[in-house]
């Protein structure tokens, strides 16, 4: 008697979301963010399945985020993007227009920019790998993710340029390789190569490859050119990403390192790794470089995004010089008053 055929249960909803995201080659951060928002959306509606919910329920969730949780506009937009992805790409159930949403206010903030001396002060309080990362963030205008995702083959020392693959918006671009970082970077890569050789001897030495390159080029995962410039200190054994491999350094390590350096430097501005990218753009504009060139180096889609840096140039507020600074007679508080009193007594 034949055994009845076994039926494989359909994957869970969040697993379907992860599969849909990976099929479209979205970043890991996007996957984590989308899954988190979908899980919160389900929890908000008392664990109801999204198939039983619709546009009014999405509207209620987004309104709750703005009015009760007081999230920023960008956070609310991210939550909406995650839910639209769920309904349109996973459940194949278009929800139409999401109306009657209380929108979080979008503040108009200028980027925090350090002076050149302040940048030097922060970098003077980091060393080794953290110094090289800080120098690339500032000297090449890289986003933190772009910097940590660099592979050895992306560095061109002869032409002193960096090729960024699949950056924000899945776009490639090239930018500067600062000459000040070349020597330390070469020495760092020599250490990384020795670490890679030791991994190979230990039966590891693999690295996660984008898309399906590991199937197309089976040996590429252990090739030196594909290794991360800034590898993690430990082997990753998470089965979601395949066999054990050495992933790249985690963002939190850099964030903590920069925060500690800022504290030691005595700078009171709110500074993070992304601040160095703002400094890169602003200082290039101060040096007289064309805004279109800066836009290209930063990888901005629209020049209006780059224009924000013209408001924080080192030329006073909007480049206006105070009329008080043009007075021919300089006085200090108290002196003028005493002079008046003395003149009146004579």
Structure description:
This protein is an all-alpha fold and 346 residues long. The chain contains 14 helices and three strands. It folds into two domains: 13-90, DNA polymerase, domain 1; 108-317, Intergrase catalytic core (hpI Integrase, Chain A), CATH 1.10.443. 47% of the residues lie in helices and 3% in strands. Strands 1-2-3 form a three-stranded antiparallel beta sheet. Strand 2 and strand 3 (173-176) form a beta hairpin.
* Number of helical segments with 4 or more residues: 14
The total tally of domains equals 2
Counting copies of identical and different chains, the oligomeric state is single chain
Distance between the termini: 126 Å
**Proper CATH architecture of the largest domain:** Orthogonal Bundle
For the record, what is the CATH homologous superfamily label of the largest domain? Intergrase catalytic core
Return residue spans where pLDDT drops below 50 for at least 5 consecutive residues.
none
Annotated CATH topology of the largest domain: hpI Integrase, Chain A
**The CATH top-level class label of the largest domain:** Mainly Alpha
What radius of gyration results from the CA coordinates?
A: 27 Å
Mean pLDDT: 87
For the largest beta-sheet, the strand count, sense and barrel status come to: 3 strands, antiparallel
Order of helices and strands: HHHHHHHEEEHHHHHHH
Number of strands: 3
Secondary structure class reads mainly alpha
Strands in their spatial order, largest beta sheet: 1-2-3
């Amino acid at each position: 008697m034949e055994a009845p055929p076994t039926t494989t249960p359909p994957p869970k909803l969040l697993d379907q979301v992860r599969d849909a995201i990976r099929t479209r080659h979205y970043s890991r951060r996007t996957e984590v963010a989308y899954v988190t928002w979908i899980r919160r959306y389900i929890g908000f509606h008392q664990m109801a399945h999204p198939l039983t919910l619709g546009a009014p329920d999405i509207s209620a969730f987004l309104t709750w985020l703005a009015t009760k949780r007081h999230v920023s506009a960008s956070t609310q937009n991210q939550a909406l993007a995650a839910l639209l992805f769920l309904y349109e790409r996973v459940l194949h159930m278009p929800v139409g227009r999401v109306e009657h949403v209380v929108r979080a206010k979008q503040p108009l903030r200028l980027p925090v920019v350090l002076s050149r001396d302040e940048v030097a002060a922060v970098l003077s309080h980091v060393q080794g790998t953290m110094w090289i990362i800080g120098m690339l963030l500032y000297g090449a205008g890289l986003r933190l993710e772009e910097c940590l995702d660099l592979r050895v083959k992306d560095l061109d020392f002869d032409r002193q340029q960096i090729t960024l693959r699949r950056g924000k918006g899945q776009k490639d671009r090239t930018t500067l390789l600062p000459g000040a970082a070349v020597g330390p970077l070469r020495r760092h890569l020599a250490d990384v190569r020795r670490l890679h050789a030791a991994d190979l001897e230990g039966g590891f030495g693999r690295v996660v490859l984008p898309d399906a390159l590991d199937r197309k080029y089976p040996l590429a995962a252990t090739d030196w050119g594909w290794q991360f410039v800034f590898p993690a200190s430990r082997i990753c054994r998470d089965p979601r990403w395949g066999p054990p491999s050495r992933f790249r350094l985690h963002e939190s390590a850099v964030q903590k390192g920069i925060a500690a350096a800022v504290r030691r430097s005595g700078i009171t501005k709110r500074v993070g790794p992304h601040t160095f990218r703002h400094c890169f753009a602003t200082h290039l504009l101060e040096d007289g470089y064309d805004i279109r060139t800066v836009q290209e180096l930063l990888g901005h889609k629209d020049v209006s995004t780059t224009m924000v840096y013209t408001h924080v140039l080192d030329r006073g507020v909007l480049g206006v010089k105070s009329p008080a600074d043009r007075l021919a007679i300089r006085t200090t508080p108290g002196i003028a008053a005493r002079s008046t009193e003395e003149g009146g007594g004579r």
